[in-house]
Amino acid sequence: MGIIIPDELYNFIHTEDIPEQSLWTIALGDANVAMLEPLFKRMFRETTDVTAVPVASDASLDGVIEPKLEKFEFDVPIGERDQFVEVWMQYQISVYEPDGATVMQWSVAGYGKSELDKDQEDAVQRAAIVAMREAGATISTKFSEQPQIKEWLEGKGYGTPVPAGQQAAASGSTVGVASAPPVAQ
């Protein structure tokens, strides 16, 4: 499976001027990549970094996956009663045939909450990491259940994959949160 991590994701910085507070700059590029690259490498039998679709000369690839961060929102309490920072984010996961035809575009959301402490920026970062983990868990556990992906995998001759939790139970493995078993190349 080819993996495209676009520059926008590597360099993602959210800036927002909140009235009655300040200008916020939240850099999540490194955290996005640190979560998504290993996640995709565990989801598929073989992975290759690619820069774009179509992938003209690589017949070994079954497809290409590309994540984008579509939405990022956060809320920092103004009043003294509120004790939590909240973050909402939404990724779009696109899967393509090697020739560039779209197999699926799937929106995956994540929500994170962190207790507010002396360092508001640190609390926002912690909440963002929780939101990213939630989105990553959804990607890893629900990807192969998407109807377009099931049909696509069957068309590639892979059949219906067994969710990772069932596979681990059958083998006696104690793997933690995992993706569906490696499915495509």
Q: CATH topology, which one?
A: Rossmann fold
Provide the CATH architecture.
Answer: 3-Layer(aba) Sandwich
- Number of helix segments? 5
Biggest sheet, spatial arrangement of strands: 4-1-5-6-7
Question: Which structural class fits the helix and strand makeup?
Answer: alpha/beta
Task: Please summarize the sheet with the most strands.
Answer: 5 strands, mixed
- Number of separate structural domains: 1
Strand count = 7
Globular, elongated, flat, extended or rod-shaped: what is the shape?
Answer: elongated
**CATH class annotation:** Alpha Beta
| Terminus-to-terminus distance | 4 Å
Radius of gyration: 18 Å
Helix content: 25-40%
Q: Which strand-content bin applies to the residues?
A: 25-35%
What number is the mean pLDDT? 83
Would you identify the regions where 5 or more consecutive residues have pLDDT less than 50?
Answer: 164-181
Describe this structure in words.
With 185 residues, this protein is α/β, with parallel strands linked by helices. It has a single domain, classed as Rossmann fold, CATH 3.40.50. It is built from five helices and seven strands. It has helices at residues 7-10, 29-43, 120-142, 147-155, 164-171; strands at residues 2-3, 13-17, 23-27, 48-49, 64-75, 84-96, 102-115. Strands 4-1-5-6-7 form a five-stranded mixed sheet. The chain has a two-stranded antiparallel ribbon with strand order 2-3. Helix 2 (29-43) runs parallel beside helix 3 (120-142). It is elongated. Residues 164-181 have low confidence and may be disordered.
